[in-house]
Amino acid sequence: FSDENIQPLTDGIKTFLDIAWSGQEPRRVYIKMLGNTARARQHLLMVTGQCGVSYRDLHIYNPINQGKSGEYLPICPHNSKEAMSLLKDLTATDNVNNHVKKAGLVAGARYCKNSNNMIVIIYLTDDPEKETKTGFAQVISGLEIFQDIAKCNDKSNIKIVDCGVVLS
Q1: What is the CB neighbour count within 10 angstroms for residue 162?
Q2: Helices in the chain by DSSP H: which ranges?
Q3: 135-141 and 72-76: which strand pairing?
Q4: Closest residue by Cα to residue 14 from 34, 42, 37, 38
Q5: Start and end of every PPIase cyclophilin-type domain (predicted)?
Q6: What is the pTM of this model?
C-alpha cells in the first residue's frame, strides 16, 4: 500500500518483533493491532519495511517512570529527523477511542507538540487512572521480554533483529 490513498484494514492484524541482546538467541514478542488507525498503518509499514524504514536495528531506550505506575519503554530511531512519521495523516490524537494505560499497550509517543513521529512506547505497568489517545496495539505474548529489557543496565547491545506480520 505504497499509495497513501489506500487505507488497509489493520484491526486484528498480528505482528512480531524478534529481540536479541548480549549474544542470546532472539526472543519473540507478538503484537495485535487495535482498530484501523494511522498509527496502526504506520506500525504495519514499520514491521514490513515497505517504505525502507523498519523496526530492525532501532534502539530501545531506558524506561520512563521506572518502578512507577505507567512505566514504559520507548523504541525509536537514533535522531529526531529519522523519527518523522511515514504517513501524512498521523497526528497526536489519531485514535477515536481512548485506551487505559495498561501493561502491554503499544502507543505512539507524544514527545513533541504535533507528535507526528514514529516513536513507539510499550507500557510495562498499569496506570489505570490515566488514558492515552495514541494507543494502537496490544502485546499479546512476550511482554516479559520488554520487562527484562527494562531491568538491563546496558541496553546498547539490545537489537530488534527481525519483525514482520504473522500469517494465519
Answers
A1: 16
A2: 38-48, 143-151
A3: unpaired
A4: 34
A5: 95-165
A6: 0.84
Q: How far apart are CA 135 and CA 44, in angstroms?
A: 14
- The rounded distance, in Å, linking the Cα atoms of 100 and 114 is 21
N-to-C CA span, the chain: 20
Q: Which three cell numbers stand for residue 46?
A: 514499520
Q: How many CA atoms lie within 13 A of 76 on its CB side?
A: 24
pLDDT at 19: 94
Torsion of CA 92, 65, 150, 73, to 10 degrees: 0
Among 115, 111, 104, 87, residue whose Cα is nearest residue 34? 104
**Residue 154 CB neighbour total at 10 angstroms:** 8
- Residue 53, C-alpha cell as written in the block: 524504514
CB 28 within 8 A of CB 142: yes
Residue matched to cell numbers 532472539: 26
| pLDDT for the residue numbered 157 | 85
